[in-house]
Structure to design on (230 residues):
């Protein structure tokens, strides 16, 4: 079975600091996509960043970057210069090529303190 | 502005009643999805549709039904057969089915269903 594991139910970080959220996944597929989604208190899911498995280069979107380790099946999210607006649930998700089933982890609740 | 509209935002239902959650998109997306979100369990796929008049069961389809009569609309009915329907329901869409990793999901704002 394909699964996504987020082992940190809750994390906190001070404003302007850096925090890393962990995600591991289990699959026998070789080609797939990985995502991080953010769900703020409004509960609107927003895409943060996306990584294609065949690309060795880690994806970056402004203050958000990933550390993708394909052999270890690890996909962590680093948030630099944390802002109060980063307070949210963060979900890691995985989808093999040519399928329609996005598989989500259980989420990490991140609190950014002033 | 293009997006996904879910209604109602909050809904209360008595046990034994069916209820329908609305999902409308004006993004011209082909594929639409329904997810259920429970605390500590992430999002689980209920049903999805790749094209009008066709849909497939997800991982937790029991007690739910859907229809896709129009490209823009994908309503979800929570039936009395669903044993634990209290949850947050999210609708999503993507541009093309079959290669959804390349076509990012766009989500609605969700509907919170509470069974009294």
């Amino acid at each position: 079975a394909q699964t996504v594991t987020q082992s940190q139910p809750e994390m906190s970080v001070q404003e302007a600091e850096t925090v890393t959220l962990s995600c591991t996944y289990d699959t026998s597929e070789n080609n797939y996509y990985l995502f991080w989604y953010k769900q703020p208190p409004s509960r609107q899911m927003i895409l943060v960043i996306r990584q294609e498995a065949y690309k060795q280069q880690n994806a970056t979107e402004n203050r958000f970057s990933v550390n993708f380790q394909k052999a270890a099946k690890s996909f962590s999210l680093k948030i630099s210069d944390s802002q109060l607006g980063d307070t949210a649930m963060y979900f890691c998700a995985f989808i093999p090529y040519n399928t329609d089933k996005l598989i989500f982890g259980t989420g990490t609740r991140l609190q950014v303190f002033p | 502005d293009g997006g996904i509209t879910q209604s109602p935002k909050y809904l209360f239902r008595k046990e034994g009643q069916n209820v329908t959650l609305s999902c409308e998109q004006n993004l011209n997306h082909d594929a639409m999805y329904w997810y259920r979100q429970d605390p500590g369990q992430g999002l689980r796929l209920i049903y999805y549709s790749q094209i009008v008049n066709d849909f497939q069961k997800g991982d937790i389809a029991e007690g739910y039904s859907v229809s896709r009569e129009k490209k823009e609309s994908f309503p979800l009915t929570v039936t009395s057969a669903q044993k634990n329907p209290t949850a947050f329901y999210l609708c999503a869409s993507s541009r093309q089915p079959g290669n959804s990793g390349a076509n990012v999901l766009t989500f609605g704002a969700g509907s919170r269903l509470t069974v009294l």
Notes: The longest strand of chain B covers residues 42-51. Chain B touches chain A at residues 31, 33, 40-45, 48, 50, 56, 58-59, 88, 90, 92, 97-102, 104-105, 107-110 (CB under 8 Å). The radius of gyration of chain B is 13 Å.
